[in-house]
Design goal:
The protein is mainly alpha-helical. Helices cover 65% and strands 2% of the residues.
């Protein structure tokens, strides 16, 4: 088909013509597409529509529907003529296939995880069907629904008398499921209550009792079955080595978990040597922890932290421009903002988070004296100097700014190894360029480098069940010098089910090492300048770094691509 024939056929074709769940990709992309943008955008929009239509993560019907959808797309992209694609199109094809394969896999994983809590929640599926029927615009008969609620309430009481046994991680997952189930039933009840008098007459009492019972049963599962007595206990859920290996393949990291732990240990050894040098300069000799304790006392008083952050952000921008390291659009410089992090948020992340809005971690009036001191010590001047640019420019804010303006459809393929790796890479590069002039600044920077090494070791070890959450906290306190409450927050973010992937904490150091290796390959060999390299990376959008390498070096992947870039010698 010629281009002219394709245009005529596309104009004549019905809008949104599909085969099953998949648009007609031949009509959509044309005979020689330069990019898969249109296909990726269609997939993203349709996938999000399905996720909104089937929002219940506890439902097997959600995962079965999404798996069918993704399999359809996986079959369809195989029919795209790979050899006719441009280099950019081939990169996107490989990324798209990788995404679809992983999505199908994860639907099965979620089903299996849901099945693991079934014995603790034997009434779950029947109750979910009430809300699923409503979303299907089907109405349950109120008297039958009332009987179902009443049976579930009695079954919960019976389970508590029987005192079931389960692994703590599964009991915690079941406790969370009671919250999700309550939310689903709340939507179901709220849709009919007050609008259908017969529904309200039958349902109000059993629903009210069941909602209260679910809240109590969630507490029972957490405290009695899982053995978690207070809110500060870290309730993790190890995924196992097999899952880590699968996730590493998805992120295009061709190393085993054990090899990555060895990478972290080698980087740790470098940090140890540099920390001793800085400690000696500060007059503490070989006792580097005393040097670290000294630096922790060098903070600003209440109300002064935002002023410090603004100054440090500008200092970094001035350094970047002086050395012509990257292009900073004026609007990116103008539009970043600041807010203060709540005490509750600081329990999960005791340090800054960034992007267009940097969230500043600093003690709030409501905290205890001990919590205030830990927060001040963990967010001192020299620790902050090494992280503000990580969060703003050239880190997360500049990343997000450029992502919104360069191939935004590739956001489907975003990777923490790109997002966090890029920001930490700049910490490494600025260290190499002597941005940290004073020994106190170097101690602050090294604390974070050691922290990122420790993240790899404790998170992978935890998920392979070779280290407990409590041991991970001790490791951060003793090996890195963390405040204990800050260490607990770090571990909690790494191991609890709060939206972070099991590899997220590894992505900082490993992604940075990938970018560093690519910098040496291109800038170190004088093929391009540092500014050209950094600008090129940001134009490609977020994706696994091996695909960034393919894009900026002009080496398009083959259709049979498998991760193979060994960016670190061990």
């Amino acid at each position: 088909m010629t281009r002219r024939e394709w245009i005529a056929a596309a104009v004549a074709a019905p809008l949104g013509a599909t085969v099953g769940d998949v648009p007609d990709l031949a009509a959509l992309l044309g005979p020689a597409p330069e990019s898969l943008r249109l296909a990726i955008e269609q997939y993203g929009a349709n996938s999000e529509a399905l996720r909104r239509r089937y929002p219940l993560g506890l439902s097997a019907r959600r995962w079965d529907r999404l798996r069918t959808f993704d399999r359809g797309w996986r079959t369809a992209i195989e029919r795209i003529p790979f050899d006719k694609l441009t280099a950019a199109g081939k990169i996107e094809w490989v990324l798209f296939r990788n995404h679809l394969d992983y999505a199908v896999h994860m639907a099965t994983v979620r089903e299996r995880r849901n099945a693991e809590i079934a014995s603790l929640l034997p009434f779950l599926d029947d109750l979910l069907r009430l809300e699923e029927a409503r979303r299907n615009l089907e109405w349950s008969e109120p008297q039958q629904a009332a009987a179902l609620l009443d049976r579930a309430d009695k079954r919960m009481a019976e389970l508590q008398r029987q005192a079931p046994e389960a692994k703590p991680a599964i009991a915690v997952r079941a406790a969370q499921a009671t919250k999700d189930l309550r939310a689903a039933l709340r939507d179901w009840f709220g849709f009919f209550n007050g609008y259908d008098p017969v529904f309200t007459w039958w349902i109000r009492d059993p629903y009210t009792r069941l909602d209260k019972s679910l809240a109590g049963y969630g507490t029972f599962l957490r405290e009695k079955v899982a053995g978690i007595k207070d809110r500060d206990t870290i309730a993790g859920d190890p995924v196992g080595r097999e899952a880590l290996v699968r996730d590493l393949a998805f992120e295009m990291i061709p190393y085993t978990p054990e090899e990555l732990i060895e990478v972290a240990r080698r980087e740790f050894a470098w940090c140890d040597a540099e920390m001793l040098k800085a400690s000696r300069e500060l007059g503490f000799g070989e006792e580097w922890k005393k040097a670290l304790e000294h630096v922790k006392t060098l903070g600003v008083g209440p109300g002064k932290q935002p002023e410090l952050i603004r100054m440090l952000a500008q200092e970094a921008v001035d350094f970047l421009e002086k050395h012509s390291l990257i292009t900073i659009p004026p609007l990116a410089r103008e539009t970043w903002r600041m807010r203060m992090m709540t005490p509750e948020q600081q329990r999960i992340n005791p340090f800054f988070t960034g992007g267009e809005t940097i969230s500043v971690s600093y003690p709030a009036e409501s905290m205890t004296h001990e919590q205030k001191m830990m927060s001040m010590r963990g967010n001192n001047v020299h620790f902050s100097r090494a992280t503000v640019f990580h969060e703003v420019i050239p880190g997360h804010h500049l990343q997000q700014f450029m992502n919104a303006r360069n191939r935004p459809y590739r956001s489907l393929f975003r990777s923490p190894f790109w997002t966090e790796g890029w920001a930490l890479y700049w910490e490494m590069l600025l260290w190499d360029m002597r941005f940290h002039a004073s020994p106190a600044d170097r101690v602050g920077a090294l604390f974070w480098r050691m922290h990122r090494c420790a993240r790899i070791i404790f998170s992978l070890s935890y998920h392979m069940e070779k280290m407990t959450a409590a041991e991970a906290v001790d490791f951060l306190v003793e090996r890195v010098g963390h405040e204990r409450e800050n260490a607990a927050g770090e571990v909690r973010r790494s191991v609890e089910d709060n939206g972070y992937s099991p590899l997220y904490q590894c992505a900082y150091m490993l992604g940075a090492l990938q970018f560093r290796a690519l910098h040496r390959e291109l800038v170190g060999s004088r093929k391009i300048t540092a500014r050209q390299f950094h600008d090129a990376v940001l134009r490609e959008h977020a994706m696994p770094v091996e695909m960034v390498r393919a894009a900026v070096t002009g080496r398009a992947p083959g259709k049979d691509f498998r991760p193979e870039w060994r960016f670190y010698e061990i």
